[in-house]
Amino acid sequence: MSNVNGKNRICPSELQLELLCLEEGLSDDEKKRTQMHLQQCEQCREKGRYLEAFYGILNLEISKSISNQVLDFAKSLSTGIKYGMLICEPIPENKNGHGQAFLAKLVFVANGKDGGKKLSDYDLSSIPKYDIALRIMTDHSCNGSLLCIWNRNDKDFHDWKLHIPGMVEDVQFNTIGVARVSEVNIEKLDNKVIFFDISLEPDKETTRFQRIKDTVLI
Hints:
The protein is α+β, with helices and mostly antiparallel strands. The two termini are 35 Å apart. It has five helices and eight strands. It folds into two domains: 14-62, no CATH class; 68-202, no CATH class. Helix 2 packs across helix 3. An eight-stranded antiparallel beta sheet has the order 6-5-8-2-1-3-4-7, with helices on one face.
């Protein structure tokens, strides 16, 4: 505790106010005392409103799917990056233990220096309703790839998994449909059957801090 505000009233620290906002790190007693204090202290309520506004905007921004424009910009920062996009079409009634089957078709790939088409030349909203766009960006210097999925029907991808035959581990996506995996050769996925599995388990209750952490740490 820091800062005295009024007669015999001790204000919580800014860290405690922030932890209350993030729904993380305070015991039940600390949370209750801080909430009771906010009912009596306008100065702390003002700080709390600022923190709520800040984290509300942050949560809104990081919950958006990665756009093609963002991937184009990331690609422009290095000549050692290769990226591209596959449109995955569902194969009716074709399922296995890994989920629903999709046929992946390569529609764009580029590497080295910029030139020619970019991912932003493709309008994701124009792809068929049940198709899935799979964007892959590979940085050879990091020996890894970034996978980004997009479709028109789901804004929360935290329970999505991708199985690519030949890969040892399934790909687990975060809330905005992003996963970091070992290096993937995008051209080898052209006309290949892959499998998306969407869990039907109910959402687990998480704190605001955990939702931010799960989105930004990939």
